[in-house]
Write a structure and sequence with these properties.
Length: 230
C-alpha cells in the first residue's frame, strides 16, 4: 500500500471498525495518514441508561488508537434521521474533510445497506468526491465497505446486494481490529448476531478465501481514476 492520505466515512461510531478497521490499520502501518469522519454519534437506537455521547467518543478514540488512525472528526447529524436533514447538509462535513485532508483513497458505506443513514452517507460521499469538483479531484479510489448487521440485512435483490470486487489482506492487522472492536465492546452482540466476533471473523475468513488471501476485508470499487504518469 502507498502512503497517500486515506479517509473513512462512517455514519455511526463502530461502522469504521466493523467494515474497514483492518484495512485502515494496514494503511496506517504503511505510513499513511488515516482520518475517520463519523457523521453521527449513533445514539437514537440506544436504550435509556446506555452510554451517551462522551462515552461513544471515548470508544471511537480508543478504537482509532488501536488502529493507528491519525484523527477522528465528528459531524453532528441526527442519528437514524439523516433523511430529515437537507442532503446538502450531509455533504458539507464530508466535503470539508476531503478539502482539508486531500485523500487519494476514500472508504464509505454500501449504497444498498438496510440502514437509511448508511445509504445517505454513501450518496453524500459520492457527491463530495465527484471528480469534476475541485474538492473531489484528489480522490483516486472510492470504495464501499460492508457493515455486519446492516449490509447482509438488506433485501436479497440485485440492487441491494453487496458484491465485493476488491479484497484487502488484514492478516497482519487482525489483532488491531479485534482490539478496536473491544473498544466498542458494548456494541457487540452474542452469536448468531452478525455483530458478534464469531461472525466478523467468519466473514473475514470467507472474504480472504474469495480474494485469494488469508483474512480479508472486502469492498466494492465505486470509482477509480488512473493517471499512468503518477
Ligand atoms: Zn451504522
Amino acid at each position: 500500500m502507498n502512503r497517500a492520505p486515506v479517509l473513512c466515512v462512517a455514519a455511526h461510531p463502530d461502522d469504521e471498525v466493523l467494515g474497514v478497521g483492518g484495512t485502515l490499520a494496514a494503511h496506517a502501518q504503511a505510513g499513511a495518514r488515516v482520518v475517520v469522519l463519523i457523521l453521527s454519534e449513533g445514539e437514537a437506537e440506544k436504550l435509556p441508561g446506555t452510554p451517551k455521547s462522551d462515552d461513544r467518543r471515548g470508544c471511537a478514540e480508543a478504537a482509532a488508537a488501536a488502529l493507528g488512525v491519525s484523527e477522528v472528526v465528528y459531524a453532528d447529524l441526527p442519528d437514524q434521521r439523516f433523511d430529515a436533514v437537507p442532503f446538502i447538509e450531509v455533504i458539507k462535513p464530508i466535503e470539508a474533510v476531503v478539502q482539508r485532508v486531500r485523500p487519494e483513497i476514500v472508504y464509505t458505506h454500501h449504497r444498498g445497506d438496510a440502514n437509511t443513514d448508511h445509504q445517505i452517507a454513501f450518496k453524500a460521499t459520492y457527491a463530495a468526491c465527484r471528480p469534476i469538483s475541485s474538492v473531489g479531484r484528489s480522490v483516486r479510489r472510492l470504495l464501499s465497505y460492508e457493515a455486519p448487521s446492516t449490509t447482509e440485512q438488506a433485501p436479497g435483490f440485485p440492487e441491494y446486494v453487496f458484491v465485493p470486487n476488491v479484497f484487502v489482506d488484514i492478516t497482519a492487522t487482525w489483532d488491531a481490529k479485534v482490539q478496536a472492536l473491544d473498544a466498542y465492546a458494548s456494541e457487540l452482540i452474542a452469536w448468531p448476531h452478525p455483530r458478534s466476533l464469531r461472525y466478523i471473523e467468519a466473514l473475514a475468513t470467507v472474504r480472504g478465501g474469495q480474494g485469494g488471501l488469508r483474512i480479508a476485508e472486502a469492498f466494492t470499487l465505486v470509482r477509480e481514476s488512473i493517471d499512468p504518469a503518477n
